[in-house]
Every structure is written in C-alpha cells, then in structure tokens.
Amino acid sequence: MNMYDPMSSPSRSMDIQEQQQQSNGHHSYESQRYLYQPISSALVLGATGGTGRVIVEELLRRNIAVTAFGRSSAKLEQLSTELRHPALLRHYTGDVFQTEDVQAAAKGVEVIFQCAAVPYHEMNDRQLPLALSVLQAAENMGIKVVVVDGIYPYSVRSGSEPIDENYPKHPPTVKGRTKLALEQSIFHARWQSLQAMIVRLPDYYGPSANQASYLFSTLQSIANGKTAIFIGNTHIAREYVYLPDAAQMIVELACREQAYGQNWHIPSAGPIQGKALIHLAREAAAQGNKLVIPLGKWSLRLLGTFVPVMKEIVEMLYLTEKPLLLSGRKYEQYVGDIPRTSYKDGIAITIQHLQQ
Q1: Distance between terminal CA atoms of the chain?
Q2: At 272, is the secondary structure helix, strand, or coil?
Q3: DSSP 3-state assignment of 238?
Q4: Do 146 and 196 meet the contact criterion of CB atoms below 8 Å apart?
C-alpha cells in the first residue's frame, strides 16, 4: 500500500452548503429528506470497542447480518456470548492495518463501519496507516465506508452557539492536525470510486463505553463506591452523547446513499455540568457521596508520571475548558429526528451495567 500526502490533492467532498446552492429554491425538511435504503450486511472494525460494540448491537436489532472484526479472538467470542450468539453475527480475527485482512472479512458486505482506534500515544504515527488500509480495501471491493471520529480537527471555540459541519478546521494541536489529515485522506481525490462519510461524536458514555471515554473512569468508580476522578472542570457544561443514541443515528446515515461524501455531527441531549453528572451517577449508584477529584493540566501531568495516557490528555484539555457543542440541524433536515436519551436515564442504565 502506497503512502501519500493527504494535503497534495484536492478533496472530493461536497459540503451541505454547496449542495443547497445547487438545489432549486427552499423546501420543507420532509421534501429534503434523504431516501432510506436498508442494508442487509455490514462489517464492523473494532467491534469489541465502545462504539464498535454498540453499532454491532444496533445492526443486529435491525436484522442486518454483521461481521465483527477485531484482533482478539477471545474478545470476539466474548462479544458473541454476551449477545447470546445471534444467527446474524459472525466474527473475523485479523489486523486492521493489513488491507488483505480487511478485504477478506468484507467479502459480501455492503458497508464497513470503521470504529477501530489506536492508543492515544500512538495516534500521530498510526492513525493514517490504519485509515489507508481500510480505505484501500473498501476501494478495491467497491464497499461504502462509515468512519467514526471525534471533534479534534475543529478550531478553538469562538462562541457559545452549537457549531455545524462547516465550522472551521484549524486545529491547534498535533492530534488535531492528525485527525484533519485523516479527513483529508478519506475525501482524497486519489480514490476513484470510494463512497465514504465521517460521523463526528463528542465525548460519549453508555453501557459499552470504555477507557476511550473521558467519563468512563468517573462512572466506573462511582458505580463501585470508590473515589473517582473527573477530567476537566466540574462547573463547565460539556456534552456527552449516549452511545445507543449515537449508533441509531450512525446506522440511519449509513442507509442513505446521499449521506456519503460528507461530514455528519452526532449530537447529544445537550450540555451538562460535570457536577450535575456526578450527582446523577451517585443517585443511580446509591453508593453514597465518595470523593470525586477534578483533574486539570498540572494534576494530569503529575498523574501521567504513573499512567502515561493521562499526560497525553493534556494537549486536548482545551476542549474541556472551551467545549464545542455540536449542532444536529443538518441531521434533522436530511435524516430525521434525533434520539435524545436524557442524562438521568442514560447515566442510570450505564451505572446499572457497571455494577453488574
């Protein structure tokens, strides 16, 4: 697989404003809705991770055949067992960095959901090779790709209003620039027939969430009646999307041909202060008021001496200090209603799962 500079060629993507300018006049939301075209089969890369697992579950809920892809056969077997060995689920053990492995797993499927992630400290070196492996496999086989990503490529917040998909991308961090290069590689002109989209999530939580979520450790410790940490300031309102809601929106987008070639926001139920989240978690856990320690830059650097990944978070901490809020207007206009599980209900379900 040949590497290339994603900055060296123009993007093939068309943003929603360009599409609107090419349409005739103004229409109601209903007349602008993209046609729903159900899919029958899908491949989920990183299927045992937080987003991968919940997308597997959503696909199965819709009676879509799923191939769950991962590095660990034991984890894939565990996933199948926990889901009670559904007839529509098979799994494939392979290396997502190997185009041949992805192609072998993708035989006969219509859409690849790219949920595989790299460790935080390896992002700058391994994010693009992973993406290129997947994109090349999809190009070779004529399969659509849905890439699940975050908000790192966006510029620093300039106001308090929710941002849409056309918000500027001038990331102030190395990780942000890596993520911007990822977007440029997905919509690169080198691909002749590839149909791909990016779905962007804020931080998330839910029964399937793992350490990739800033909130996971907080909820896990509260669920178990232990002293917890909270990354960022507990008095600043931020948004967290409930993963089952996100999966529903992501699969809805995947079933719409016109949605490909674009970025899409996957919004939450709205912003909430950390102290309010902690209150809901304590209430759901019924474990008393164990201490929750907020972590800022200096405490993260200190903790990073013992837990290296914590030091990596410092670079992105500005997103907790001046958090972005994602607008879901585009999704509502072209797809439909946004599922918005309340934080009270979502936190209660998550805490119950963690306690079990």
Answers
A1: 44
A2: strand
A3: strand
A4: yes
pLDDT of residue 7 exceeding 60: no
Using CB atoms within 10 Å of the CB of residue 191, give its burial: 0 to 12 exposed, 13 to 18 middle, 19+ buried.
middle
- Residue 267 is encoded by which pair of tokens? 């919004």
Looking up tokens 């494939």, which residue turns up? 92
Under 8 Å CB-to-CB from 70, ≥6 apart: which residues?
Answer: 45, 46, 47, 48, 52, 76, 91, 93
DSSP code for 25: S
Phi and psi based region of residue 270 (left: phi greater than 0; alpha: psi -120 to 50; beta: remaining): left
Q: What is the pLDDT of residues 58-94, one digit of tens each?
A: 999 999 999 999 999 999 999 999 999 999 999 999 9
d(CA 253, CA 143): 15
CA gap 345, 237 in Å, rounded: 18
User: Reduced to 3 states, what is the DSSP secondary structure of residue 329?
Assistant: helix
Please, is 5 exposed, middle or buried when counting C-beta atoms within 10 Å of its C-beta (0-12, 13-18, 19+)?
A: exposed
pTM: 0.91
Distances in Å between the Cα of 220 and the Cα atoms of 78, 169, 206, 306, 307 are: 20, 33, 11, 20, 17
Residue 318 DSSP one-character state: H
Beta strands in the chain (DSSP E): 41-45, 65-70, 89-93, 111-114, 144-149, 196-200, 203-205, 228-231, 237-242, 263-265, 271-273, 292-295
Distances (CA, A) of 83 to 73, 89, 210: 15, 9, 18
Non-local CB neighbours of 192 within 8 Å, separated by 6+ positions = 139
The answer to whether 351 and 223 have CB atoms below 8 angstroms apart is: yes
Q: Burial of 250 by CB count in 10 Å (0-12 exposed, 13-18 middle, 19+ buried)?
A: buried
Name the one residue in this structure whose structure tokens are 């229409």. Answer: 27
The token duo for 239 is 């948004």
User: What letter would DSSP give residue 275?
Assistant: H
